[in-house]
Each structure stands twice: as C-alpha cells, then as structure tokens.
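Listing S7. Sequence submitted for prediction.
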Amino acid sequence: MSDATLTPPVSERDHAAGADDAPVTLVEYGDYECPYCGMAHPIVQKAQQQLGSDLRFVFRNFPLAEAHPHARAAAQAAEAAGAQGKFWEMHDALFEHQDALEAEDILSYAESLGLDRAKFARDLEAPAYAKKVRDDFRSGVKSGVNGTPTFFMNGARYDGSWANVEALIGTLRAMTRQGVETSA
C-alpha cells in the first residue's frame, strides 16, 4: 500500500458490485481500451469469485484518450448502459471486445444486452455521462492515478502486482482476515 488516498471516497455515485458492508473495497481506475486493463479484467473477476461477499468492487473511468482514441466513448457507453441497469454487462462486453470499440460495435453490444437502442444512442451523447467520465478522471488525478489500471484497497493505493492473481487475492484475503474496516 502507498500513502496515496482515494479521493473522493466511494459513494452512491459509483458503480459497485458487492455489498456496501464488505470488509474490503477494491477500486479500479481503468480505461476500456488499455491492454493492461484488459489483462486485469479476468484477474479482478477471479478475485470477485474467490472472495464473494467479502469484496466490493468499484470501477471508475480513467480514459487515456490521447493514447486510446475509443476510451472516452467506451466509458460513456458503460455509463449510458448503466442508465438502463446494465453497467456491469457493458463493462464486461467492452473489456471482452477491446479490439472492436467503434460506434457501430458499441451499439451492437447494447443491442445484444437488450438495451433500448434509441435511448442508449441518445444517452451516449448526453452531457451527464460525459461529465461522469470527466468527474471519475479528475478524482483519479486527485488520488494520484497516473496510469491504468490503478487499484485502491479500502481507500489506499495498492502498489503491489495486480498481474499476479495470487498476490492480489492474497492481499485482499489478508485484509478481510485483519477485519480492516472499509474506509472507501
């Protein structure tokens, strides 16, 4: 862990998978077009499966748009899908199809998820979702994020290896055993 602190803490504005009272909250700042985030995605899923109710996972958008030209639109697509209750499904689809993030691709993912296509298309352009992505990005900057993926555990930046699933899950398990209170 480092001295960097999650700013702001997790709140109702975040997309969270898992119970609010889980002993550990893992926050990822990620970019849907980032290959490293793509590699981290199944590792986080494995952590969620293994830790179950002991883990709450939060994803915040940190699109590195200069390096990844589709990242911002993909983040807005996840937010627009969230408006129809399908944030996590779109989140997964975007990571599983990182090589296909053109507008037509994103619309096809929305259709495959059963979203109202017209509403989704309107929401993609909605200022509220662009603002949410910008707010996430700014919170990452305030939290000391300078690349993706960046993880925080219970509000403190995790500087250990996320690519080593055993190390990541081991750290998360140790936190649950210690009874660390969720400060995120």
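Caption to Listing S7: primary sequence and predicted structure tokens for the chain studied. The mean pLDDT is 94. Helices lie at 35-51, 71-82, 87-96, 103-112, 117-124, 127-142, 165-178.
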